[in-house]
Amino acid sequence: MKIAVLVKQVPGSESVLPILNDETWVDESLVSFIMNPPDNFAIEEALLIKEKAGEGEVVIVSMGPDRVKKTIKEGLAKGADRAIHLEEDGQIETDPLSISKSFSTVLKEENFDLIFTGLQSDDTGMGQTGVLLGEMLGYSTATLAMETDVQSDSIRVKRELESGWFQWVKLPMPASISIQSGLNTPRYPSLKGIMGAKRKEIKSIPVSEHRVGSKMQTIEKVFIPQTSKQTEMIEGDADSVATRIVEILKTDLKVL
Fold first, then answer.
1. N or C end of the chain, less CB within 10 A?
2. What are 42-85's pLDDT values in tens digits?
3. CATH architecture classification, 2-210
4. Cβ neighbours for 114, distance < 8 A, ≥ 6 positions apart
5. 107 Ramachandran zone, left/alpha/beta (phi>0; psi -120 to 50)
6. Are residues 4 and 115 in contact, defined by beta-carbon separation less than 8 angstroms?
């Protein structure tokens, strides 16, 4: 069983996020980065499958500048066997299609049985990479996975639907699965794992070898929403006051 886990480095939830003067992105020099939280669950699920099978390989795959290696080593310290780093220079790529093309260019030669991704990233939150990558590689795909059951040549996935409903689907392998947060309890790197991660392979892929085509989607502006406070005193009898309140809820606040 050969499993790839796509991991992304994102700003920490408690980190300051100063916006650049041109409002195209945040000033990353002042940001504290961490592993994308949903990706922790994807790594753990891959490790559990490998441990249950008693054999296999878990490979961390990440795209980003040199700072991403810190997050890659965290995945290796948890128990992954090796890693692939798709290098980036300058501002990170935010177009899901371009990102998926880069991953597919590198991963198609690896012939993975499973590709796991966290459901979405905490920075852009688009949640498209896993599905796009599956389509490009010709893999069966599933999203919102709450439980997995690997069989000889297929995988059963419990998917979370709306209104408290769940759905079991059976997919032929190879498959690309987007993992929902909460399906397991991610482990912490042990001291032995941290020391062992230093000896594990991290294969670096230059930008020129994975960047394909032009962007189809860009972020035009990043900004802090402007807030405003407006108070309206409603006077009159009970009927007119109630009518005005209902009108505000319908037209201004749009909650009715």
1. C
2. 999 999 999 999 999 999 999 999 999 999 999 999 999 999 99
3. 3-Layer(aba) Sandwich (3.40)
4. 1, 2, 3, 4, 46, 49, 150, 155, 173, 174, 175, 176, 177
5. alpha
6. yes
